[in-house]
Amino acid sequence: MEDKGKDCLLKTLEQLKGGEVRVFLDKLNLINPKQGYMCFSFRIPDHKLLTDFLLDNYGVDYGIEVTVKVLKAMNLEALAKELVEFQCNDKHFVDQHRNELIERISGIDKVLGHMHIDWNDSLYLAVRKEDTDVLKMQKLYELMPSRNRKFKDDLYHSLLVTNRYLIEELQGVDFFMKYKKELIRRISWVGSNLQMRLHDILDHAEYEAIMAESTDNQKMEKLYELLPSWDRRRKFQLYQVLKSTDRGLILQLEAGHFVEQEQNELIQRTSRVPEVLRRLVGVALTHDQYKDIMYEPKDILRMRMLYNLVPQWNKEQKDHLYKVLLDTNRFLITELKGKNFVDRHEHELVQRVTEIGSILQQLVPLLLEPEQYKAIMAESTDEQKKEKLYEIMLSWDRGSKDQLYHALKSRNRRLVLELEAQHFVERHKDELIHRVFNVPHVLDVLKMLEVLDHHQYEKIMAAGTNRQKMKKLYELVSNWNNKSKDCLYQALRETNARLLKEIEGGNFVERYQKELIEKVSGMDVILFRLLGFILSHGQYCHIMTEETDAGKMKKLFELVVPAWEVKEKNWLYRELIRTNGLLITALEGGSEPGNLEASPSDTEHFIEKHQEELIRCVSGVDIVLSFALSNQLITKEQNQEIKGSPQQQMQKLFVLVGGWMTAGKEKLQCTLTETNPRLIAQLAGGHFVDRHREELIERVTEVPLNQLRGSALDEEQYEALLNCATEKMQMQALFQMVQEWNRQQKDQLYRALVDTNPDAVTVLEEEHFIEKHQEELIHRVSRVDAILRRLLVQHSLIKEGSDQQKMEQLYTLVPSWNRKEKDHLYMVLKKTNGPLVAELEEGHFVERHKEQLIQNVTKVKIVVQSLLHYQICRRLYINLLEKDTDKEKMEILYKVVPDWNGEWKNRLYQELRATNASLIKELEGMRSSKEGFVTNPLAEEKCYLCEKEKGFPVIQPELIPAKGKLKTYRIHLPRAGIFLCAVTELKFEVRAAVTVKYTYSSWDQHLSEAEMQNWMVAGPLFDIRADPGGEVAAVHLPHFICLQEGKTDVSQMKIAHFIDAGMTLEKPSQVTQFHVVLENPEFSVLGVLLKPIQRLIPVHSVVLLYQIFRKTTLHLYLVPNDSSLIQAIEDREKSRQSVLVDKHPQTDEPLYYGSYYFVFSSAKLVISPEKLEFSYKTPGQLQSFVDVYLGNIERVNLSLKKKEGLLSVWDAWLESGPSNQEENSDNNRGSWFPWFLELFGQFQLTHDNIERSSGSAGTRCPTQVEGTARAENPPSSWRRREREAGVAPVLQQGTQATPSLEPHFIEQHREELIRRTTTVEGVLDLLYGIVLDEEQYQRISLRETNPDKMRELYRLVPSWDCSCKDRLYEALRQKNPFLIAELERR
Hints:
By secondary structure, the chain is α+β, with helices and mostly antiparallel strands. The strands form five sheets. Strands 2, 3, 6, 7, 8, 10, 11 and 14 form an eight-stranded antiparallel β-sheet that branches. β27 (1260-1261) and β28 form a beta hairpin. 33% of the residues are buried. The radius of gyration is 43 Å and the shape is elongated. It starts with a helix and ends with a helix. The protein has 84 helices and 28 strands. α17 packs across α18, α21 runs antiparallel to α24 and α69 (860-867) runs antiparallel to α72.
């Protein structure tokens, strides 16, 4: 209510405009407060400060009452009415039910005894003077307005303990329904007392009906049949009867369960909450309740949600919670069961309490029965009487023990205060840690007095400085009894007498008040760190009105410090050490020179080392602050003061971080790791200037020498750097010095670079393309083998698998790369996956498809649940859930998405793929809006080793009808320039407009057999004619020899010119990567030949796939990249109505004539012949091919290798799907199996064919090839890819899909997964509701060991489909990543 009251009060005061605030202050200062409140004067016209002033001095209830009076005096009735209505709508329980409580409450003395008030309190004495309970309650209500809301809370809890029946009745709780089960089971009818008393409230018929039953349980059940018709008076009479006849049971029920008595402590302090909740499932919690509670981010919030359910539980469920808490939080439960003062100090009280007779007399009317009092007084000695009292006290609740505490305090006040007070060594802990010297001598004394054992002594002595030794010592002190603390005090007195005398003279901040006011600096930081902990917001704002540090310190000492306890003063002392260490040491006399502590930690933490970069680069600052607030690292008031841009907010947060303990910094680092994992991974690689050394040397244009002069650089270094000739040389020399710098100096260089070279620093800090689009690249990149070959990635680092799996492995290396290496990957992706890169450059997936995602995404709740606390805060999450439709939820989500970095958008993309696979696959298949996105695979680069030639205008030739098989092409070149034929790759350099006709010719018609032995064909043969011929300056004839391998002598390349006299050879004017140039040509039949002076000549090659019409058979050709050969194969296959399977044809590396290649597949296919020789055959010859019989296989990966275990030179992924054959033929209505191709290849690890250390291909036979099984690449990945794509296989008519012959990953590794899986519960939680129902979940959970649980789980697997197995695979990978990674590597 306090927060609501403050908000309402502030909202009301903010409606005061202009001079109304000053009028309000004038009338407020004239108010005479009622008894118990002091007069205050306040003159600051600020709404927030005024609100804080009213609440600090008058509390919520009376503060609102005073405000109403002032507003009415100002004739502002409307505003006053608002506050009155608020008070009426939010009255305290004891105010709402005042009349009933006065009339019906009994035992007021016991009520007062349970309250936390001193027995000498004037209210207590005044109430006790009255004669009856009604008069006592009336007096209590008369005096109550002078007390704050906490007093009413205390009264309410006391009433609940002593008059639970009445309080629960007023709250709408029926005592008899609440405890029905226990009352029926446990009420005893033996004897006539209960039967006799029931005569007073039952009529004769009711009584006879009940007594006719034979057993106690049946009688109670019969009695319960009557209760629904009874009024409140009759039920209360029955309650009184039961309490008089079975008092012990009723008191036990009303006292409440331990888990209810200690609710607040358990909510605040319970640890291992997820385990507690998990063990409650099935007994006290349903699985839905468990999931709802686990959505809360923090343990304290989860415990609060749990306690919302506890009131509805029965005793068995509460007992189960107690048992679970005892198992998981034994020390806490033990402490709570014995935390009462009289329990903690039993030994001292028995030994030292006096006036036991008077104390017992005070207890007789409240706690002790006369018989108990007589039994105690019968003991002979006081000590025996106290021991007897403790025996009786074992059955008392905490309230009764509190009453004994008050009785003890009234008669033994000095003893109680002594036991309550902190020991000297605890009160002055911080100053003693900071200032005690000669600690080894102190430890020697403690060891001699047997306070420290040998192990403890050695452990403390191993610490470095005196402060570190004292810190270690104080880790033990908290568990010591007073005797051991006295020994420490004695040891300190012997070794540090002067220091103890000084400390006993008063707290440090009091002793040196004058010096602190005059000399302390950095008060803004100090006050900000104290805000919310020991400094209220009003006090903070009031002090901050002072301009100077001295003024702020003086105001702090005037307003706040005098009211502080020792604990608060020690807090200020610690902050002074951290911010003004030199000053504090000087005032203390330099107790330990040169060992100042700037923070509670002895070593600099990770987040402090990288403070500068974290301030600039962290995303999701609001979530980080929300985490810090919920973990009590910052206060609510501090959070309110952290405003501005994300960088400004992080700067203010780091002001506070310096005062945190290591545990707090660890929590912050964990949060940053969850919200900014890529940034934290980068920082783990070292400081910014170390990570980007090479890039900074290259990119920095203005070396910040002036900014570093006098701090990081001395004069000699500065002059030396000035003498360097260029900026690059200056940076190189500077980085020689940087190697010796500490973190602060590197931070200074970083800040200087940000100021002088902002663009260069921003480029290095911003997300790279390959990071921004990481997830989409992992899922969509093809030809990964070719990519890895171009990157020259070491093959041992990446294992076999699908393209997606290889990309995932590749991305494990990326975080360690510098920007140059990332740029190289980007360029390789652009070459191998140009269309995809062009699409991604338009924006991130979630940006490109914003409208479609908003309109069509489903299961948004599941999506945002996974992002909760990592990318979206709870406030936004609740706002999303309030929306009715998924579309509205997505619209809300997209209000924050534009501000996300690529890493966060990648997470959203991942969740969308997991929940909306079909939609995402559909969107990924859409054409890009960028022109030229879809390219012809045949026009892509021929070789990654060879640089592309400069682009030229591409001309589509005209096909001239002619007799015979040879096709004749004609192109008209309209002007001077260089032009490329789109079909033949002939290039013409012309001086003016010209028309050229040309056709393919065959080498075997022009070369003799002897000439064919001496020369190697290097390209197609053309018959060319030009009109006018003299305008052609040069012709560029295509060749297919790879020149970048370094194995070809280009001087041996000749142009063969065939005329009537025979063949003449001409030396080419120029040899380029893909063409041989002949200047001023005389046209006839021309082609390129090579004199093979070495045996192996690298050849650019292609693989062509044709599907045979009406059959599930492919023809696979492997030929040189010769357009005449490709044309000849096309003509032959088209004559048979075959269709080209559209895919990238180029091999991933140049091939060599005479080599044999095998076709490998991921499924059992019939492949004939078993191998294919790579050789050259002229267009007129029949080209060799391999028949691949697909049968009913739905999807398959094909690859071409020299032999098993080697890198593939080409590969492709085929899936069933729609075909365009129907467009090519009117008669193809038969039963044929359509296929389309998607690249889904295997790794190419280096540009050499390095044999793998372990192959994964299946066995081969002459007629059948069992393709590469990819043992570490589970078939589930293929099925998962199909499911995500939303592909529905198109099957042969009259056939059924044949299930994969490959076992699923979880079936392949069944034995090891059963034996080695840990955190099985986590796996089950991920499967619950999706794969497992409630009964299955509970049955598996009941198994004792992890292997037993896994075996029980595996009993269900045979009935699962592939998607269920995939879910299990994903759950195992999430909860046991290292085990799955190991199994996948095999």
